[in-house]
Amino acid sequence: xxxxxxxxxxxxxxxxxxxxxxxxxxxxxxxxxxxxxxxxxxxxxxxxxxxxxxxxxxxxxxxxxxxxxxxxxxxxxxxxxxxxxxxxxxxxxxxxxxxxxxxxxxxxxxxxxxxxxxxxxxxxxxxxxxxxxxxxxxxxxxxxxxxxxxxxxxxxxxxxxxxxxxxxxxxxxxxxxxxxxxxxxxxxxxxxxx
Length: 194
Fold this sequence. Notes:
Elements: H1 3-11, H2 15-36, H3 40-57, H4 67-86, H5 97-100, H6 116-125, H7 129-140, H8 145-152, H9 156-174, H10 184-191
């Protein structure tokens, strides 16, 4: 069932269709919100709030963008609003060396025992929030620059800049443990969903 049919059925009161929509987009919402909200109980609350907003506002959806982009925008905004309301949401300055130093250092003696994919995912989680967000949306969820701009409200140039800086930080961390050809693993992870 395509999104248009699904929306029509939901608007006609078919709750099974809404359950289908939640199942279809749940992973997307968890993925986006989970990059911003680390605590599981808070994440569950925000994800539930996202789908309540989707249900309440579905009649306002005008097909001006893909449904996934519209839902991702709600997930992103709900997560940011949650952080602003219940926690201090720090807009991290991308040039702030203190936040960038928080990346975990890797020691060569750990190379044999570490799971490289886990290490890369861990490094993504430690990126400043804006970097983590654009990496998730662009690489992991495969939204276009324009869609990321629409979801986050960041200018396309800012999105590209954050992606460039995030990749540079990840490349810097990985150069000590793998050769240049092996850095393709970053791309493989970027293409994995969930």
